[in-house]
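Weekly sync notes, structure subgroup
Attendees: PM, AL, DS (notes)

Item 1: joint prediction request from the bench team. They want all two components modeled as one assembly rather than separately. Inputs as received:
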Amino acid sequence: MASGNILEVENLRVDIPVASGMLHPVRGIDFSVSRGETLCIVGESGCGKSLTSLAVMGLLPKTARRTAARMDFLGHDIRTLREREMARLRGGSISMIFQEPMTSLNPSYTIGNQLAEVYLRHVEQSRAAARDRAVFLLEKVGISSAGSRLGQYPHQLSGGQRQRVMIAMALMCGPELIIADEPTTALDVTIQAQILHVLADLQHEFEMGMILITHDLGIVARVADKVQVMYAGKTVEEGPCEAVFDAPMHPYTQGLLRCIPIPGKTQRGERLGSVPGIVPNLVGELSGCMFRNRCEYASEACAEMRDEPTRMGDGHAYTCLRAPEEIAGERQGAGGTL
Amino acid sequence: MTEAAAALETVDVTCVFHVGQGFLRGAKPLRAVNGVSLKIPQGQVVGLVGESGCGKSTMANILLGLQKPSSGDVLYSGNSAAGFSRRQIARRIQPIFQDPYSSLNPTKTIESIVSQPLKIHNVGEPSEWSAKVAEMLDVVGLPRRVASSYPSQLSGGQRQRVAIARALVMRPEVVICDEPTSALDVSVQSQILNLLQDLKEELGLTYLLISHNLAVVQHMADRVAVMYLGRIVEEADAQTLFNDPRHPYTRALLGSVLTPDPRLGVPDTHLGTVFPNPIDPPPGCSFHPRCSECMEICRSRAPRPVADGGHETECHLYGNTGGQDRHVAHND
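Output from the run, pasted for the record:
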C-alpha cells in the first residue's frame, strides 16, 4: 500500500451474535485513504457500509465483535487502542458526520456549547479560543452572522443549517480524517449540492482524508476519488471513480447504474433496469458469491467461488468469475450503454 | 394548456395555517399554499417539485380532501368539492405515501390492509374480498401468500407494493404519489417506478407525482409544476421545462441534480444560504433573497404569472406583459 495513507484497513470483519446464529454484516474488507483523498463506499441498506464506519470509529454496538488483520491510523494500531486512547482520537483526529442532523445535535444545548465542547476536550481549555474557532468554522461552512448563532438552539436552525453546524463541529479540532455517513440524504437537492460543495472545499483546504458513505451514485460520481462498491458485507468492485463509472465490471455495479433514471440518457417513460430479488440473509456459514441468487450470469461455479479479485491495473478490481474480455465485449455489443 | 378534461383541478386555492408564536404572543398566519391553480388532466402524470416546506404535501392533502382550503375550490372532473363527501372523494382519489414503514398498520395482516377500503365503501360481498385482494397482489407483483403476513415481515419495496395495492383496490381515477420512492433503495426504486408506469398504462390512471428527485420526475411526468413557498413559480410540459427552464429557481433545482458523471464536480447552485421563513415571507418576489438574478423590482413587487403557450412562469425576468391579471396575495 502507498505510504501516504492515513488510514489502512485490511480484512475487517464484524460479527454480531443474534438469536438465529452469528450475523456477518462485514465479511472481510480492505480499504485505505490518503491525505486529501475521498473514498466513497457505496451500497444499499444492509450491505454493511455503516457498520464499517462505526468499526473504524470504535463505536460498534457492545455485542458486536470486530476483527481485522490491520487497522492503522497515523501510526496508531486501532485494534489495540484502549477506550481512553480511542476517545482521544475520536472527535480529535478522526471525526464523523452522521446522516440525521436533527437527532445528532443535542436539542437542549446551544450550538456554541456543542461546538466548544469538542474543542475544550481535545485541544485547549480556553473558552475564548474555542469561541473564535467556532465562529471561524461557522463562517467557513456558510452560516451568516456566525457570532450571533452561537447562542441559538438546534431547533432554531433549518435542516441544511444544522448539517452545516455538524460539519463545523467535525472540523473543530482539525481532524486528519472525516467519515461522513450519508451526510445529505435527509436534505433537499439544492441544499445537498451546497453541503457537498462545502465539504469538498473544506476537505481540499485542510487536506483531510474523507470516507463518504452513501447509496447515491450521483454523489459518488461527483465527489469520489476512489470508489468501493459493497454488497452483502464484501467489496464487489473498487477502483478510481472514472474507471468504475466508465466501465463497471461487476454485475451488481452495472445493475445499480441501470436502475437510476438519468436526465438526458434514459428516455422518459422507458422501463428502468432493475436488480431483481432481495439481499441475502447473512446469518451462519456463508460461501461463494453472495450476489449469485440475483445475478443474471450466475452459474454453479459461483457457489464455490473464492474472493480473488480480478485486477485490471490502475487499482480497478472486481470480484466476479466473468473475464474482463467477456464483459468488455458485451459492453461494446450493447452500444456502450453499459 | 391542454383541452383534455382535467381529472382534478384546483382553482386559486389558498391554505392558511395559524402558527403559535409562543405563550401570550398570539398566532401568525402561514400561507402554506398561496393561490395555486393546477390542472391534472385525465391520464397524465403531473409532477410537483419543490423543497421541503414549499407546500407540496399540503397540496396533496387538499386534493385528497383531507385538508379544507381556506379559499379557492377543488374540482373533481369539473365538479366542485363542495358537492362531495370525504368518502366520495376517497373513491376517486387515493394516496401513496413516502414511508411504507409508517403508512401500514403493523397490527393488521396484508389482506386486512388491502381490503380495508372495500370494507369502508361496502363494495361487494365480504366473501369476495379475499379474491379481490389476491387479484390486487397479482397486479402489484406480490406473491399471494403474503396476504396473511404482517407488514413487519416484508421488505421496504414489498411494503410499498402493498401500499400501492391498497390505493388501487378501489380502482380510483387519480393517485397522489407523495414521494413514493424516497425511502427506498435504488434497485427497489426502479422496480416501483416501473410498476407505477405499467399500472398507469393498464388501468388508465392519472398521477400527481410529488417528489424532490428531479430525475424521477423527468422520467415519469408529462407536465411539471415547480413550487416555491406556496406558489407555483413555473409550469410547463415536462420536455419544455427540462429543456428550457426559465425561473431562476427551476434552473437552480435542475442544476442540483447529480447525474452519475465522474467528470463533473459538485455543481454550484448560486442559491444563497438563507432560507426564508414562510411565516414571515420576504416582500416582493418571495424567492428574491436567494435569487442570483435579483433586480430592484423583485424586492418590492411580487411578479405575476406570464404564460407563453403552455409554459407559465412567475418571474420579473420575463416581463409582465401578456400575463393574465391575478391577485397575488403575498403581502396583505
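Discussion: Chain B touches chain A through 47 residues (CB under 8 Å).
Action: AL to compare against the crosslinking data before next sync.
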